[in-house]
Structures are given as C-alpha cells and as structure tokens.
Write a structure and sequence with these properties.
With 346 residues, the chain is of the alpha/beta class. It contains eleven helices and twelve strands. An eight-stranded parallel barrel has the order 1-2-3-4-9-10-11-12, surrounded by eight helices. It has a two-stranded antiparallel ribbon with strand order 5-6.
Length: 346
C-alpha cells in the first residue's frame, strides 16, 4: 500500500490540561501538582506543541503559572502556557513571573492573556470597580506591550558575571522602558535578564470581539472557539488582516481553532483525526487547541489514537525539531528593540 505524501503542511496541536470549570469543584486531583506532571509528560510523548492551563480569580484551583513552573523541570520539550490575568495585577509582576517560567523551562514558556470583569473579582482587591470588556482588553493590550518592553530592557549580553571585578551586569545594556498606559506606568528596567526566547510566546483567546485587536497587535497565537470550519477560516482571515493593518507580518500570528473534545473509545480518537484533517484541509486555521471533557481520559486517547493517525498522514511531526516553544511553532526569536539604538548611539 503506498505511503501518503509528506509534502502536506503540518498542523499545530495544543491541549488544555483543565477540563470544564464545573469539574474543578469536584475533582480533588486537580489540586495535586503530580496530576499535571503526568498529563504534561503524556502530551510531550505525543509531540504536542504546548499545553494550556486556565486560571481566573473567579474559579477554584491552584495558580496556573505556579503549577506549570512545577511541571517545567519534569518535562524537556513541551511548551507550557498558563493563563495570567492582567486585571487587578501589576504588569511588572506579570512580566517577571512569565520570564521566570521561561528560564525554569529553558525557553518553553508562553502565557494566555486574560481579563477579570466581574464585580465579585473586583471586590477581592478593593482597588477599583469592575470595568467594561472594551476597557479591560485595552488595558490587557497595554500589559502585553509593556511586558515585551520589559523583556527587552536587558540586552542578551547584558550579564557580565565577572567575580574578579564584582561586576554582574553592563549598565549600558539595561534600558528604562518609561511606559505610561491608561491605568498604570512602568519605568523599568526588569529585575530579571532577558528570557531565553527573547520574549515568551503570547497567546490570546480571540473568540470575543473585544480581544481581537489585542490578539492582532500582540499575540503570537490566537485561539478561536468555533463550531465549523467556515467560521474558523473567517476568524483567521479577520485576525490576519487586522495584524497586517497594524504593520505586522500576518504569518507571525498563528490562529488555532479551539474545539471541545470528548473521547470514549479508540474509534472516537480516529474520528477526531479525520475531523482535524478535514478542517485543516479547508483552511480552518494553523492548528487546533483541544478542550477536553476529561483531561486524563481524553489526552490518553488523543496521544495513543489520534496522534499516530495524524503522523501517518503527515499532518503532525514525529519529533520536536528544536528545544523552545518558538521553535515548535516556527516563530523566530524577536530582536531586542533597544539594542540597535544603543549601537547607533555609540
């Protein structure tokens, strides 16, 4: 029997480690970090690009970023993308925390930009009232912007680490960002060196319209929750056009169709491979973000059933070609925006 051609464009595949919100209230294993380690290592065996872990001030469960920092040393290639809420949190701290995850994972970190819009969540902090979605996402875009600036505030070779002279850093290679947004200002520089990836991968759930412009301006990966390939293709075209209008290369923005999945058997896993292949052929997106009903069960069936079929059809790689999440996604390491200015001035 002839083997399929491997000239096809491979798809990107990501998996949510958290199930529907209602599960978190009745699943004690979701508070066990080893639960997430086991799932992440299984996803890595399936050569998935990355896993996501949701978080918000309105749901039970551990801090997503802290959990994936625990997972990082126990994995070697898998990308780790926690949700990080930009509302009610300090942008400087957000930048530092995501940077730390990139260092702990040796260049495999990303973050999903989230907002917090309910009065109950606002009361947890007591600093300001809940705001409309448009205002929250405008602020989220500013946080994503200043985080990238803070990551660039150290040039790649800013560290000296000269014990003989006691010099740790070249001060000429540190930069103040001097950012002023609508609700915060940040001077910088960062307190941590530039991340291994230059900038960790930025993801945005761009299903809702208020988030679309933020995704187009700042995201490396956009998720869109859709029910059919035509809607997914239209959302991808919209996001790419928005990115182009902002002066970005639209090929630097990957759009993943975010789909709910529920597998009970190996037959379902093969059927999922058929569905993903058909959607991909129809131009539904650059890949898929799968949201399981039961993460442990569905991920096992995905890795042992769906992944081999996709690999056989040349729609999914068989090994990781690099070590960083940006390499998995085919995204370049960004140049430091401040380094050229320093070189010109000297």
């Amino acid at each position: 029997m002839p083997q399929p051609s491997c000239s096809l464009r491979p798809l990107h595949l990501a998996f949510a480690l958290d199930g529907p919100p209602r599960r978190a209230r009745r699943a004690p294993e979701l508070y066990d970090p080893e639960h997430y380690v086991r799932l992440a290592r299984l996803a890595e065996r399936g050569t998935l690009d990355f896993v996501t872990l949701g978080d918000s001030f309105a749901r039970p469960g551990p801090d997503a970023l802290a959990v994936l920092a625990r997972v990082a040393p126990r994995t070697g290639r898998l990308g780790l993308v926690p949700a990080v809420t930009t509302t009610h949190t300090e942008p400087f701290h957000v930048s530092t925390a995501v940077n730390t995850l990139d260092w702990v994972s040796r260049g495999r970190a990303g973050w999903t930009v989230e907002v917090s819009g309910t009065p109950a969540e606002a009361r947890l902090f007591g600093r300001r009232d809940a705001a409309p979605a448009d205002a929250l996402w405008r602020e989220a875009g500013e946080v994503a912007d200043v985080a990238a600036r803070l990551w660039d505030s150290w040039e790649d070779d800013a560290e000296i680490r000269d014990t003989a002279t006691g010099r740790f850093v070249d001060r000429d290679k540190l930069h103040h960002v001097d950012f002023r947004g609508t609700s915060f200002s940040v001077r910088g520089p960062s307190i941590t060196p530039r991340p291994p990836q230059g900038r960790p991968v930025v993801a945005v759930d761009a299903t809702a319209r208020p988030a679309r412009q933020v995704a187009a301006a700042h995201a490396d990966v956009a998720f869109v929750r859709v029910e059919d390939p035509a809607t997914a293709a239209a959302a991808r075209a919209d996001l790419r056009e928005r990115a182009r209008s902002l002066g970005r290369d639209p090929d630097r923005l990957l759009v993943l169709a975010s789909l709910p999945v529920e597998l009970y058997c190996s037959g379902d896993a093969v059927g999922l491979a058929d569905l993903l292949g058909d959607w991909h052929a129809d131009g539904a997106g650059d890949g898929f973000h799968l949201r399981p009903a039961d993460p442990a069960r569905d991920l096992a069936l995905l890795v042992d059933g769906t992944v081999p079929v996709l690999q056989h059809r040349c729609l999914l790689r068989r090994f990781y070609p690099g070590t960083t999440l940006r390499e998995h996604l085919g995204l370049p390491r960004p140049a430091n925006r401040y380094a050229p200015a320093r070189k010109v001035s000297s």
